[in-house]
Amino acid sequence: MIDREPGTGVRAQPRLTVVSGPSGVGKSTVVAQVRKLDPDIFFSVSCTTRAQRPGEVDGQHYHFVDRQRFQRMIEQDDFLEYAEYAGNFYGTPRQPVLDALAAGRPAILEIELQGARQVRAAMPESQLVMLVPPSWETLVGRLTGRGTENPDVVAHRLAVAEKELDAQGEFDALVVNTDVRQAAAELLTLTTGRPS
C-alpha cells in the first residue's frame, strides 16, 4: 500500500525506521508482529561473518559472507552501519534500504544502539524508535528468567541495557513493550504514518 499524506492524495515520503532497545525487551518479537500486520514494509536482512546455524536460511535470517567479502563491503561503503560482536561482523547493507524507500516502501531496521547512531549519521532523516520495557524490574525478570546464561553474562547485559536506556533522549519516539500486539501496532503507525 502506498502512503498518502492525509487529505492531499499526494504520496508521503516513505521513512526508514530504526528500532533499538536493550537485550530482553522483545525487539525481534515486536518486529515479527509488525511483519505480520503489514508485509509490504521492507525489513532489512543483515550481513554477518558468523557461521550459519541449523535452521537458518541465507538471505532470510542473514546474508552469510566471509570476512574478506565483509571487509570489501566496508571499503566500498556498502553498509549503513556495521559492528563487531564476539569476533564476528554484522552490518546493514545500504542499497536494499535505499531501493525500498525509492520504490515507496517504508523500511524497518532492528539494530543495537551503536548501529542506530551510525544510521542516524548516514541518514539523518531516519526515524529512531526505542523499544523499552514497562519497568526496569520487568527487564531484569526477562533476562534472569531465561535461565540459559551464567550470572556474569546477565550482569553484563543489564549494565549494557542501563546505558542503552540512558540514551532515550537520542530517539524520536519510545514504544513501551507491555503487550506485544499493542507495541507492534504503535510501531506500525510510526513506520507507515497511518493509524493502525
UniProtKB/TrEMBL annotation:
Top-level division of the source organism's lineage: Bacteria
Signal peptide: none
EC numbers for this chain: 2.7.4.8
Gene3D superfamilies: Guanylate Kinase phosphate binding domain, P-loop containing nucleotide triphosphate hydrolases
Catalyses which reaction(s): GMP + ATP = GDP + ADP
Domain (Guanylate kinase-like) ranges: 14-192
Compartment(s) of residence: Cytoplasm
SMART domains recorded: GuKc
A Pfam family it matches: Guanylate_kin
Residues annotated for ATP binding in this entry: 21-28
Gene Ontology molecular function: any one: ATP binding
Function per UniProt: Essential for recycling GMP and indirectly, cGMP.
Family label: Belongs to the guanylate kinase family.
Database matches in HAMAP family: Guanylate_kinase
Protein name: Guanylate kinase
Originating species: Actinocrispum wychmicini
Lineage per the UniProt record: Bacteria, Bacillati, Actinomycetota, Actinomycetes, Pseudonocardiales
Gene: gmk
